[in-house]
Design brief:
The protein is of the alpha/beta class. It contains 17 helices and 19 strands. Strands 1, 2, 5, 6, 7, 8 and 15 form a seven-stranded mixed beta sheet that branches. A hairpin with a 5-residue loop joins strand 7 and strand 8. The chain is globular. The N terminus is likely disordered.
């Protein structure tokens, strides 16, 4: 505890104990908060500032540092505990190590097809072409992917990939990649500052020159000044009640930072719901149950004991694509065939215990540790869970600029790659390929810059924003967060309809009106209240953008399912864009990019997969 905080709390206890008058007690609060609400800050100057210490951010920092510029990385979580560690399945690269026929064009075609042709073609092309080199690089740095007998990287199936192209490190590929990047960053002496909450990107006359932060532990403010800023702050899936994201991550803060800076968001309605998340206990509801359970023969059953996937995809059954399995699970639940805890059963108990422990060790341990359930004897209860933001900040495919000078973005915070349904293994390829590209171009901008841009007014405004939140109020933030998560789950969940979406917007507007009344009182426990107040505002704006875009997309396509518009419509071959206009969100559409004849042929030549034996779905 800092000295001012400690002194303050001692005085508070004394005054409470001896029943001092309300006037004096109020006066002490005002005196303390007045100290917090100054405009004092530390200053940190670098060539390139990276916001986000996950895979995309670290890869960007490494590339920029390699070009000889000064780089600093900031993040709100501990650098070894960011969301990248949760990516288990693998990373895609068309090596053809196992299936010789595979190539980058086939990887491109598979991604475009499963994205329902809403992906940005150039973005997909770059990812497919450059992922083999980037995977070899991270393996050389120490990611330690599983190898074949000939020494080449092994590759396995993920569903909707024509060939085996997913490289992996056991069932902890994301963690392996992240730890390798951390080690590389340490070797290059790249500083990574944890517990830094970014409240504002500093922008003046359309030029981004840094960011304002406060330390979540002690409230200390820092202005990070830089020639180039790279935003790699993740998505917004935590704003749904059931989510595979953990508390206080993927709250949409990266999206809102971009919006306030003048960026455009695209495809915000396109959110991937993983078919199987844990239903109980409440504190970890939404935690992923790996699709490897279905890949290894698991059956989905409703409360009546019916293996219901035959009603939704009789050929592929449990090996259908994520969007279809999620839709099936949701329909069974919503139509009254749910389990006691509001899910469906996922049963692998027809396999031997030895088989399960060998093939699914993490799942066996996960249910044993959290629920004391032996999945070799009893089924698991699962339900769809918000898993991945496929939309995000609109960027240039080649250099990942955002339209704001000096501001770049990479990773899940961006849109363009995945379209309406993400292929498993593409997200890890994305963070490395485009993290590298963003880092290179951000460094080049700094190297070629003649002058450094600054604005005292922008910094003062960022201080004022922080100060405006620190006050006594009648509403506590956590319950409002919970209310927002319920709104999104009930009104903009797996299956949507215009009446529910419109009701959702009304409820979100009501929540927005409560923002000025939130109670934020930093104390001995740190500045978490201030962080979650900023998170709430960002989440509300991200939710509004998502629902407004979902209203406009009057069709069912991939992860976006409408009960009132059940068919895919050719007229909806568009991307929906969101932008702030005088603090109000405006949504418009633009046609999707046309494909070259060469890439169009790659898609038309792709044959439908008929044999799903041995293939995990995404």
């Amino acid at each position: 505890m800092t000295k001012p905080l400690k002194k303050y709390h001692i005085i508070k206890k004394i005054f409470r104990k001896y029943f001092v008058s309300k006037f004096l007690y109020y006066k002490i609060n005002i005196t303390f908060f007045g100290g917090l609400m100054s405009k004092k800050h530390n200053t940190h100057i670098s060539n390139v500032l990276v916001i986000g210490s996950g895979g995309a951010g670290l890869r960007a920092a490494i590339e920029a540092k390699g070009k000889g510029v000064d780089v600093v990385v900031i993040g709100k979580r501990a650098k070894g505990d960011v969301h990248t560690v949760l990516a288990a399945g693998g990373i895609n690269a068309a090596f053809g190590n196992v299936d010789k026929e595979d190539n980058w064009k086939q990887h491109f075609a598979d991604t475009m097809i499963e994205g329902y042709n809403l992906s940005e073609p150039r973005t997909v092309e770059l990812m497919a072409k450059e992922s083999p080199e980037i995977v070899q690089e991270i393996d050389k740095w120490g990611a330690n992917f599983v190898k074949l007998d000939n020494g080449k990287i092994d590759q396995r199936f993920f569903g909707a990939h024509t060939y085996r192209r997913t490289c992996y490190s056991g069932d902890y590929t994301g963690r392996s990649i992240l730890m390798t990047l951390i080690k590389k960053a340490d070797e290059m002496k790249i500083p990574v500052h944890d517990s830094q909450y970014v409240t504002e990107l500093l922008v003046n006359d359309g030029i981004c020159f840094g960011a304002m932060t406060f330390d979540i532990k002690n409230g200390e403010r820092t202005v990070f000044l830089a020639d180039s800023v790279i935003l790699a702050a993740g998505g917004h899936t935590r704003i749904w009640r059931k989510s595979s994201s953990r508390r206080d991550e993927n709250t949409g803060d990266g999206f809102y930072l971009g919006l306030k800076a003048g960026c455009t968001l695209q495809d915000m309605e396109l959110v991937q719901f993983h078919p199987t998340g844990m239903v109980i206990p409440e504190n970890i509801a939404g935690t992923l149950v790996t699709e490897a359970v279905r890949g290894e023969g698991g059956h989905l059953l409703n409360a009546n004991g019916e293996r219901f996937m035959s009603n939704y995809d009789s050929e592929r059954m449990e090996l259908s694509t994520r969007d279809r399995v999620a839709m099936a699970n949701y329909t069974e639940i919503i139509e009254g065939r749910a389990t006691e805890n509001g899910g469906v059963f996922l049963d692998i108990s027809h396999k031997s215990k030895d088989f399960i422990i060998e093939k699914l060790p993490r799942m066996y341990r996960q249910f044993l540790d959290t629920l004391m359930i032996d999945i070799s004897k009893s089924p698991m209860e699962v339900a769809p869970t918000a898993h991945y933001s496929m939309g995000g900040i609109k960027v240039d495919p080649d250099n990942h600029t955002t339209g704001i000078q000096g501001l770049y973005a990479a990773g899940e915070v961006t849109g363009g790659l995945h379209g309406a349904n993400r292929l498993g293994g593409n997200s890890l390829a994305e963070i490395l390929v485009f993290g590298k590209r963003a880092g290179a171009h951000a460094a080049d901008r700094s190297i070629n810059l003649d002058i450094q841009y600054r604005s005292k007014k922008a910094i003062d405004n960022a201080h004022d924003k922080i100060n405006s939140f620190i006050k006594n109020g009648k509403n506590v933030v956590r319950p409002l967060q919970r209310e927002l998560r319920n709104i999104m789950w009930e009104h903009c969940g797996v299956v949507r309809a215009e009446d529910r979406l419109n009701t959702g917007i009304d409820k979100i507007n009501n929540l927005k009106s409560l923002l000025p009344t939130v109670d934020v009182r930093p104390d001995s426990e740190g500045f978490e209240d201030l962080m979650i107040a900023f998170d709430l505002e960002a989440s509300i704006m991200s939710a509004e953008s998502t629902i407004l875009s979902a209203i406009e997309r009057k069709e069912s396509r991939g992860a976006h399912q409408r009960s009132d518009f059940e068919k895919l419509e050719e007229s909806q071959n568009v991307n929906y864009l969101s932008k702030l206009d005088n603090d109000n969100l405006k949504v418009e559409s633009i046609p999707t990019e046309k494909l070259s004849d060469d890439l169009e042929k790659a898609i038309s030549d792709t044959k439908e997969i008929k044999n799903y034996s041995g293939k995990l779905i995404e």
